Structures are given as structure tokens and as C-alpha cells.
Amino acid sequence: MLEIVVYAAFALLGTAGLLYGLVEFRRAKESEHWLVEDATVLDASVIKHRGGRSYSPLIRYEYRHNDASYEGSRIMFSGLDFTSSRKDVEEFVLPFVKGSKTRVRVSPRDPRRSVIEPGVDHRLKLMLFVTSYVMLMGLGGLLGWWQ
After folding, report:
1. Measuring CA to CA, which residue among 66, 77, 80, 65 is closest to residue 115?
2. What is the pLDDT of residues 77-110, one digit of tens each?
3. What is the per-residue pLDDT for 102?
4. Cα gap 140→144, rounded to integer Å
5. Residue 9 neighbours by CB distance under 10 Å
6. Residue 40 DSSP symbol
7. Which of 128, 117, 144 is nearest to 7 (CA)?
8. pTM to 2 decimal places
9. Alpha helix locations (H) across the chain?
């Protein structure tokens, strides 16, 4: 009975992760063709994660589209947090000084959706692979492939 619960959990978690990843992958591919708008950096900082071993950038920016103002914080479509060493994240954030200008891609269908670096990041591809593997492990167990 415990095996079925574990396999079902793997199948469900893998499926949920895969569906999320596929939606992000579609948006990432579409973002390559989104409209380009000028944005003003509102804040750029380094976030320390629990345990203090990994860090992520946080970049907030404001842009205008069709005479409306929007705020965004998406850097890229990676599927996972962009985490690294403090030094690497500080170097990444360095050009995004408060008040400086940058260019963002804005979805023509939903101008609330924007990104600094369009396209598919390698971490998103890795996420799709891992979630597919987890889902197949769970389904394989439920279908008796591993007996």
C-alpha cells in the first residue's frame, strides 16, 4: 500500500511540475517575439536564501505600455530560482542600478507579463527533464513496470 502512495505522489508531483514547466516553456518561447519597451529599474538587490549558501537577484522595474504603467520583476523564464554564489549574483545585479534604464519584453496579450531576458533558460529545460522523469517513475510504479 505504501508503494502505491509513493508512486502516486511521484506521478502527481511530476505531472504538476511538468505542466507548470510546459506553460513556462511556451511563454519563454513566445517572449522572444514580444514587444520591446524601455523600463526604469526601481530596485536591484541580492536575496539570501535559508542557510546562507545560495543567493538570488531581485530586480524590480517599471515600464509603460499603451499609456499604462506596469511593474515587473521577472528576469528570465528559468522554471527555477536563479540561485548562485553571492559574488555571481552581485555581478549579475551590478548593471541594474536604481533609476537606470533597461529594455524588457512585454506580452502583447497581457502587458502585465514582462521579462528582462527573453527565451528559454537552460534551467527550464532541466526542470522539464527532471519532472518528466519523476512523473514516469511514478506512473511506471503504478503500472507495475518496476516489479
Report:
1. 77
2. 986 666 677 888 899 999 999 999 999 999 999 9
3. 97
4. 6
5. 12
6. E
7. 144
8. 0.83
9. 2-31, 86-93, 122-142
